[in-house]
């Protein structure tokens, strides 16, 4: 935490001269500085916000999720603090809310909300789809389940944003391994029964050899998002193609989604696959039909 400093403390303690502070550091928040040559990470910003609060604020929301190991949190996210201040500086969102002692832990020198309290705040203060994306990421990193958060919904039943939180908890799924997968799952849920995530695919001996992002195991329909890294890394691309062929040989209908696909195109492809299965059933489909990549 040494690279984020309080300017007055550093100068008063003889760690820096005023000139060194002026030319070697840049201001992050009032009296909070970071080295000039290094762009601050979200964790740096969280440390700075805590220092700015006089070491009294509690880091929550997206910055706390990052501290708990959640991926796919933007470095440009504001730092949310549980701290009584009506006019925080740019980059800090301050909220003065009731937080129980059992909802706060220490991470390094920082006070931060626990995983379940972080989820409680994420679900209340973000738009629904964004909230689900961040809850999925937090669950993926920590094993969080909705059941761990729901006691807080009873304890703070009158708190702001509870309607959005309850919807987000119903939609969250720690099986998502990217925001794109979360968005894809939410799209499918608007038109079809809820897909299962991270479905194991078994070989002829009943041993799992792959997992598919999401789909319907009873219908043997898999839907997977194909990110840029799958296309730009040639070795990975070859491995993925061989994996998909093997999945298809086991009788699965495999639907690959890319960023350029429009929502209605995805829905039509899934609807067509489900119609195929409905006509003959997954076990009755010939290999040239059941083993195709749609």
In short:
By secondary structure, this protein is an alpha+beta fold.
Search tags:
294 residues, alpha+beta, Endonuclease, Chain A, 3 domains, 4-stranded mixed beta sheet, 13 helices, 12 strands, elongated
Explain what the structure shows:
45% of the residues lie in helices and 19% in strands. With 294 residues, the protein is an alpha+beta fold. The chain folds into 3 domains: 1-40, no CATH class; 46-171, no CATH class; 179-290, 3-Layer(aba) Sandwich (Endonuclease, Chain A). The strands form 4 sheets. Strands 9-10-11-12 form a 4-stranded mixed beta sheet, sandwiched between helices. Strands 1-3-2 form a 3-stranded antiparallel beta sheet. It has a 3-stranded mixed beta sheet with strand order 4-5-6. β10 (208-216) and β11 (221-225) form a beta hairpin. α5 (115-125) runs antiparallel to α6 (128-142), α5 (115-125) packs across α8 (162-171) and α7 (146-155) packs antiparallel against α8. The relative contact order is 0.07.
Q: What's the total count of β strands?
A: 12
- Main beta sheet: strand number and arrangement? 4 strands, mixed
Strand neighbour order, sheet with most strands = 9-10-11-12
Q: How do the SSEs run, as a string of H and E?
A: EHHEEHEHEEEEHHHHHEEEHHEHH
Q: What distance lies between the first and last C-alpha atoms, to the nearest angstrom?
A: 50 Å
Q: Enumerate the spans where pLDDT stays under 50 for 5 or more consecutive residues.
A: 286-291
Structural class: alpha+beta
Mean pLDDT: 93
**Helix content class:** 40-55%
If you compute it from the alpha carbons, what radius of gyration comes out, rounded to the nearest whole angstrom?
24 Å
């Amino acid at each position: 935490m040494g690279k984020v400093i309080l300017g007055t403390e550093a100068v008063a303690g003889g760690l820096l001269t005023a000139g060194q502070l002026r030319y070697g550091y840049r201001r992050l928040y009032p009296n909070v500085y970071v080295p000039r040559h290094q762009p601050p990470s979200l964790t740096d910003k969280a440390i700075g916000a805590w220092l700015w609060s006089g070491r009294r604020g509690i880091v929550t929301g997206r910055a706390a999720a990052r501290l708990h190991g959640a991926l796919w949190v933007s470095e440009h996210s504001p730092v949310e603090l549980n701290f009584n201040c009506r006019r925080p500086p740019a980059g800090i969102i301050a909220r003065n809310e009731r937080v129980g002692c059992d909802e706060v832990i220490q991470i390094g020198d920082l006070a931060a909300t626990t995983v379940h309290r972080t989820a409680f705040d994420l679900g209340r203060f973000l738009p629904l789809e964004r909230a689900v994306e961040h809850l999925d990421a937090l669950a993926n990193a920590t094993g969080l389940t909705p059941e761990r958060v729901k006691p807080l919904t009873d304890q703070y039943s009158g708190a702001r944003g509870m309607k959005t939180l309850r919807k987000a908890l119903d939609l969250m799924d720690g099986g998502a391994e990217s925001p794109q997968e979360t968005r894809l799952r939410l799209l499918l849920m608007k038109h079809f029964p809820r897909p299962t995530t991270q479905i194991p695919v078994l070989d002829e001996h009943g041993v799992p050899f792959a997992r598919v992002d999401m789909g319907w195991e009873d219908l043997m329909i898999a839907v997977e998002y194909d990110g840029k890294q799958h296309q730009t890394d040639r070795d990975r691309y070859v491995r993925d193609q061989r994996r998909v062929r093997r999945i298809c040989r086991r009788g699965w209908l495999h639907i690959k989604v890319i960023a350029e696909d429009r929502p209605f195109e995805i829905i039509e492809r899934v609807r067509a696959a489900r119609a195929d299965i409905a006509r003959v059933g997954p076990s009755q489909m010939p290999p040239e039909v059941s083993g195709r990549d749609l």
